[in-house]
Amino acid sequence: MRDMGEKRRHHGHGHAVGSFGAGRHLEHEENKHKDQKLDMSGMNMETIPHLTMTLGHITTLDLSNNNLQNIPESIIARLLNVVVLDVHSNQLTSLPNSIGCLSKLKVLNVSGNLLESLPATIEECRLLEELNANFNQLTKLPDTLGFELHGLRRLSVNSNKLTSLPFSTSHMIALRALDARLNCLRALPDGLENLGNLETLNVSQNFHYLRELPYGIGLLVSLRELDISYNSISALPDSMGCLTKLVKFSATGNPLVCPPMEVVEQSLDAMRTYLSARINSADDGKKKKRSWMPKKLVKYSTFTAGMMTPGRAKVHGNGDGLLMSDYRSIDGHIASPGFLSMLSPRRLFSPRRNSPKH
């Protein structure tokens, strides 16, 4: 279809499209090549001309590199079989809501425009595999985007004004590549570990906004490339010691102290070894904390339901033991031999001398 534009310029018809002859020429070219692609890119159009041709058979529509400020709802609604829609490098401030009618759409490129948001109806494009919205003015993405776009494999939203990614991102289980660099991200969404197919993650150049990474980032079992450069991250999660498939990593421009930057720059193996050692030492510490607990204190702290102690009221409820009010704290002597003798079975179950006889 690009031949159409060249032929029209060659014959001196200018850049305007839309006459009856032009529409008939489009149909002729489409029938001639049978490539089901309509290419109207790079024609300096400010508006899309009225097209009389049938658009139902179009599978690829390229409107890129023009000066379009909007796309008519009616045209999008007629693209019932479009698989690829490319409108990058225009002056679009919004997308038509009818984009939700594109039930067969797999690739959408809206990069290089002036978009501040994406229509919620984009969630209806459930076959979408690639969404490129780089170089816009986006401040947020639809909150429930990930709940519907389960098949999305590539999400590119770099060079925008995003302060966060939607919480539903963790439901994009088919995602292979996520590019969110050059934004204002303050955090990454929870549940990141659910993205088991993610291979490439780029959250670089969020500068002073991004100060930490979630623990789940170390559980991305398929991750091969990770770029967190030029942020304000001082410590990497210990879980990153488990990223065994990682082959490319960049943390340049961060005030890293854990692990020290010299360890990171040494090699990926050195970084993994450092973080793995921290995990192991933390596990050892937990074992030591559990080991010092006196077993007898645990055994003597509860009694069976309905048990009576002399001079005390019967315990009612779920039978978990005596009420906390029945105990006296002895500061500094909780584990002393003298206190333990007070808890001996003979002392606990012997009636008090001044207790009434039953």
Automatic annotation (TrEMBL):
Which key words tag this protein in UniProt?
Answer: Leucine-rich repeat, Repeat
Keyword Transcription regulation appears in the UniProt entry = no
Recorded GO CC terms:
cytoplasm
Write the protein's name.
Uncharacterized protein
Statement: the UniProt record of this protein carries the keyword Nucleotide-binding: no
Q: Where is the composition biased (Basic and acidic residues)?
A: 24-37
List, alphabetically, the Pfam families matched: LRR_1, LRR_8
Gene3D superfamilies recorded for this chain? Ribonuclease Inhibitor
Hey, which family's this protein in?
Belongs to the SHOC2 family.
Q: Where is this region: Disordered?
A: 1-37
Function noted in UniProt: Leucine-rich repeat protein that likely mediates protein interactions, possibly in the context of signal transduction.
